[in-house]
Each structure stands twice: as C-alpha cells, then as structure tokens.
Amino acid sequence: MIARVLPFAGTAILGSAVVILGIKALDVFRVEPTIETPVEDSFAGASESHRESQQAMARRPEVFYAAITERPLFDPSRRPFVLQETTPAPQDPVPVAVEPEKPPEELPPPQIVLQGVITKNDRNSALIGIDGKPSVWVSEGDFVDGWKINEIGSDWIEISQKARNLRVEMYK
C-alpha cells in the first residue's frame, strides 16, 4: 500500500514546492523602488488596485525613461537632438547711444522639440525637449517657460501665453 501512495505523495510535494517557489520568484521581480513624491489625488473614483497601479507609475524615476530620451524613436538617426551654438565673428566696438529698453511684456516662445505622445485613460502626456535641455514629460495644463500646455494631440501640442497661441508638430 505504501509503495503505491509514496510516488503520488512525492510528486504532490514537489509540485507544491514548484508552485510556491514560482510565486516567490514573481514577487521578487515585481518589487519597485519607492520614491517619495506627491501624487495628485485624481484617482478618487478608481478602485484600490487601479489607484495603486496609477500611483506606482507616477513614482517612476527619470531613469525609467532614459532609453527613450537617449535614443529618440522618431528621429531617423536615433541620436538625441543637440543644439549647435554658433559664435559670431568679433567686431570692432562702435559707440552707440543707448536708450533704456522697455522690458518685454511677452516671452519669446521656447524652442520646443516634440519627441513623443502617450495617451492613457483619456489623459495625454507629451515628451518634449526645451531649448536643448533634457526631455521632460508634460500634460495638459502644465506650464513650460511661462507658456501653458493647452492641448495635446496625437502628433502635436498647442501652447499659449496670454493671447498668443503656438502649435508644435512632431514631424517637421
């Protein structure tokens, strides 16, 4: 009798050990570093599991997106955009009467390069490079150098400042 039961018992023990170790292995890969950042409470009507997954995505560090910014998907060369500065040739100084300048009321538009757009749960985000600085993710309503992000489309963004509107296309 024991000779018949022993193989089944051994197989059951090994099978349960495999299942337990598999669950433990999956938990090891699921752990993400915790970063203390304020998360807006826009998940008020969401379920608890959905809220936790949204907050976990909001806590991801900038390093998470480094591969996207270092090798842009929509640039044919797959190299980051580098702003090349040119230095003017030195000229002889000419005395000029200087009048006091009026401070500009409107800021010039920033040099924005639209690198990508993500749409998730009716919320659009755009990856933009500003004046050659590292890329940042922005959403509708955010401000960039005094300009407000009004709308984000599938391959464009619209920014405004006072009465001025500017549309930045991804493919130029």
CATH topology of the domain at 64-83 and 108-172: SH3 type barrels
> How many beta strands in the DSSP annotation?
7
**Gyration radius, to the nearest Å?**
27 Å
- Give me the strand/helix succession: HHHEEEEEEE
In this structure, how is the largest beta sheet organized?
4 strands, antiparallel
Report the CATH C-level class of the domain at 64-83 and 108-172. Answer: Mainly Beta
Distance between the termini: 80 Å
Task: Give the overall form.
Answer: elongated
CATH architecture descriptor of the domain at 64-83 and 108-172: Roll
Note the topology.
Blueprint: H1 2-30, H2 48-58, H3 66-70, E1 112-120, E2 123-130, E3 136-139, E4 143-144, E5 147-152, E6 156-161, E7 164-169
Antiparallel strand pairs: 1-2, 2-3, 4-5, 5-6, 6-7
Features:
single chain; 172 residues; alpha+beta; SH3 type barrels; four-stranded antiparallel sheet; three-stranded antiparallel sheet; 3 helices; 7 strands; elongated
Would you write up a description of this structure?
Helices cover 26% and strands 24% of the residues. By secondary structure, it is an alpha+beta fold. It has a four-stranded antiparallel β-sheet with strand order 4-5-6-7, with no helix packed on it. Strands 1-2-3 form a three-stranded antiparallel β-sheet, with no helix packed on it.
